Backbone:
């Protein structure tokens, strides 16, 4: 019984140490029909009450040399802690998605580059805080130079 208690405590400590963050995936990963038309889906990790997490996002773009910002439609799916991002930014230009979230006292952020074939998982960046303007700008410039395609 003591071993079981120690194991449960250790697993709980590891989950808490991991902190609040996001995991991205393709729309089919959500197994939710309403996500079918989404650009991508993401899940919150490390949030004790995922239904209470506050999530927002913007698409940050570079269109014909001009900087653009579009508020995103981030929709909660039927499973708590799973969200879909729908593309409501223009198809021209280079774009990254900037996600922000809070869960009680914890924060999370992500920068997800969008390429011609959709989100680019390998170039995505995840933080246990909102991304800074400099980090967003760096990701956007790298995408514009072809570094993330």
Residues:
């Amino acid at each position: 019984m003591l071993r079981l208690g120690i194991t449960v405590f250790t697993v709980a400590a590891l989950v808490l140490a991991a902190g609040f963050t996001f995991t991205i995936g393709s729309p089919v990963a959500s197994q939710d029909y309403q996500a079918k038309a989404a650009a991508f889906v993401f899940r919150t990790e490390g949030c004790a009450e995922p239904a209470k997490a506050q999530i927002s996002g913007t698409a940050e773009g570079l269109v014909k040399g001009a900087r653009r910002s579009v508020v995103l439609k981030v929709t909660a799916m039927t499973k708590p802690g799973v969200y879909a991002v729908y593309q409501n930014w223009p198809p021209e230009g280079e774009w990254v998605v900037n996600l922000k979230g809070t869960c009680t006292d914890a924060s999370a952020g992500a920068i997800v580059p969008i390429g011609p074939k959709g989100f680019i998982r390998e170039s995505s960046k995840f933080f246990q805080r909102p991304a800074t303007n400099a980090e967003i700008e760096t990701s956007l410039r790298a995408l514009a130079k072809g570094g993330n395609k």
